UniProtKB/TrEMBL annotation:
PANTHER family: OS02G0734600 PROTEIN (PTHR31495:SF2), PEROXYGENASE 3-RELATED (PTHR31495). InterPro entries: Caleosin-related, EF_hand_dom. PROSITE patterns: EF_HAND_2. Pfam families: Caleosin (PF05042). This is EF-hand domain-containing protein. It comes from Digitaria exilis. Residues 6-29 form the EF-hand domain. Belongs to the caleosin family. One of its GO terms (molecular function) is monooxygenase activity.
Length: 180
């Protein structure tokens, strides 16, 4: 569901231009949107694809999205791409020290540092990009990133809230899955 938001035409494949367009719809400028699409589709396109894939290596196949998992993450997605509630809770029990159930920018940096596996430079970069972008999208006026906002990035509902018109088909599916 996290990645499916970006698949606007619902064909199961996320192209460079879909990632770019989704970042624009989320409110990012041309520079950040192009760089993010290049980074994400460049890194995941060659990994997240079945053996018999024929499309460009910049295209991400959602059916193989779990192959995009990297090291130095929180473990809130397992190796099959399933959400792991205990690992998610650990983010806040270990790192939310200033305000319960919310992270400051410094606490996110401490978490990223704590999750780093030695020498895993691509994992460090991936985790850093994911959390910095999430913080810029989800922080409140006091600079706090609340637990419910972080939860909503894992199932993609944050993206739908911020850019309600980008992917109406996927939103319908999401509403069917979530109780609220
Ligand atoms: C505004 C856009 C995005 C934000 C804010 C974002 C944020 C995040 C966050 C916070 C995580 C969790 C990392 C962790 O648990 O340590 C994550 C994981 C992941 N995201 Fe995104 N993401 C975005 C776009 C995308 C896109 C476009 C794709 C691919 C199509 C993608 C694929 C993944 C994958 C494969 C993971 C699992 C990585 C892992 O846990 O090792 N994300 N993302």
């Amino acid at each position: 569901m996290h990645a499916a938001f970006f698949d606007r035409d619902g064909d199961g494949v996320i192209t460079f231009s879909e990632t770019f367009g989704a970042f624009r719809a989320l409110g990012f400028g041309l520079g950040v949107s192009s760089a993010s699409a290049a980074f994400i589709n460049g890194a995941l396109g060659s990994k997240c694809r079945p053996g018999n894939a024929t499309l460009s290596k910049l295209d991400i196949y959602i059916e193989d999205i779990q192959k995009g998992k990297h090291g130095s993450d929180t473990g809130s997605y397992d190796n099959e791409g399933r959400f792991v509630p205990d690992k998610f809770e650990e983010i806040f029990s270990k790192h939310a020290m200033t305000v319960p159930d919310a992270l400051t920018s410094d606490e996110i940096d401490q978490m990223l540092q704590a999750n780093r596996q030695p020498g895993d430079y691509s994992g460090w970069a991936g985790a850093e990009a994911e959390w910095k972008i999430l913080y810029s999208l989800g922080k409140d006026k006091d600079g706090l990133l609340h637990k419910d906002v972080v939860r909503s990035v894992y199932d993609g509902s944050l993206f739908h809230r911020l850019a309600p018109n980008w992917n109406p088909h996927d939103k319908e599916k999401l509403n069917g899955i979530r109780e609220n």
